[in-house]
Amino acid sequence: MSEHPEQTQLEQLSGQIKDLFDASLQPCALPELDISLYLLEETIEDRQFSPEQVETIWANMPYWAFAWSSGRALARYILDNPQLAAGKRICDFGAGSGIVAIAALKAGARSAWACDIDAMAHVASRQNAQLNGFKLQCCDNIEEAGEVDLIVVGDVLYDTRNHGLAKTLFAKDCEVLWAESRAQTKLSEYPPVAKYQAQTQPNIGGFDEHQFIHIYHHGS
Ligand SMILES: C[S@@+](CC[C@H](N)C(=O)[O-])C[C@H]1O[C@@H](n2cnc3c(N)ncnc32)[C@H](O)[C@@H]1O
User: Fold this and answer.
1) Is there a contact between 79 and 106 (Cβ–Cβ < 8 Å)?
2) What is the number of structural domains in the chain?
3) Is residue 214 part of a domain?
4) Which of 67, 75, 147, 178 is placed for a possible disulfide with 153 were both Cys, Cβ 3.0 to 4.6 Å?
5) Distance from the alpha carbon of residue 101 to the mean position of ligand 1, in angstroms
6) pLDDT tens across 191-206, in order?
């Protein structure tokens, strides 16, 4: 066990970013949320990647190193409506950096889980929570979170394996707040409660088409 486990965890995260992008991981302020996250450095936006590099990046995408537009929008929605999270046990499904869980904790959530299939997202969520003065727990399967009052979801429909997820999550005995830019076909039977415009940070190629976000609230 290292004498400085936090340092070791940050080194693990930075190492993955260095290997994949030859770039660094940096604490980044998102002023509109008053939240800081360890993200892939913003100068990456000026870099050109070959088609082979793009393929490698997408095959190994460290989703946790970005603040995705839907997560940013949902974090904003929760901070605009703190009563939605205050006092609740929440689970951030597809947490990535943990951005939405952190917003819920800022809004007064009693406790938060970061649920993600990527073990590095657990490390990132813990580090990001700590950077903002919070603690959270991590799991790779939502059942491990036990009883929660609110599930928050930001941007998971990019993966076709998640296209049946609405039925599963909406059948649970709790509220669900869900933000997507790709939801028009998959969640269209549920009317959105809000629409936001947000950018993914850092914004590398092709993300602009995902700047218009719909927010859904089930079980309110
Ligand atoms: C596009 S990122 C969004 C991260 C964060 N919510 C945000 O908005 O910045 C999607 C995340 O969902 C995770 N994910 C995808 N499918 C999942 C599943 N079925 N269960 C748990 N996590 C999942 C991925 O590993 C990734 O970290």
Assistant:
1) yes
2) 1
3) yes
4) 178
5) 12
6) 899 999 999 999 987 6
* Domain coverage including residue 108: 65-218
Q: Poorest-confidence range of 13-17, 89-93, 136-140, 207-211?
A: 207-211
- pLDDT tens by residue, 79-123: 999 999 999 999 999 999 999 999 999 999 999 999 999 999 999
- Phi first, then psi, for residue 48 (nearest 5°) are -100, 135
Instruction: Give the DSSP H/E element, type plus range, for residue 170.
Output: helix 165-170
Tokens at 167, concatenated: 């039925």
Q: Whole-angstrom Cα distance, residue 47 to residue 83?
A: 41
The CATH number of whichever domain residue 120 belongs to comes to 3.40.50.150
Q: Which residue ranges have their beta carbon within 6 Å of ligand 1?
A: 63-64, 67-68, 70-71, 93-97, 99-100, 115-118, 121, 154-156, 158-159, 162
From ligand 1's centre to the CA of 114, what distance in Å? 10
For the chain, what is the mean pLDDT?
Answer: 93
Q: Which run of H or E residues covers position 26? A: strand 25-30
Residue 166 lies in a domain: yes
| In-domain check, residue 136 | yes
Q: State the pTM of this model.
A: 0.95
- 98 CA distance to ligand 1 centroid (A)? 10
| Residues 6+ positions from 118 with CB-CB distance below 8 Å | 62, 63, 64
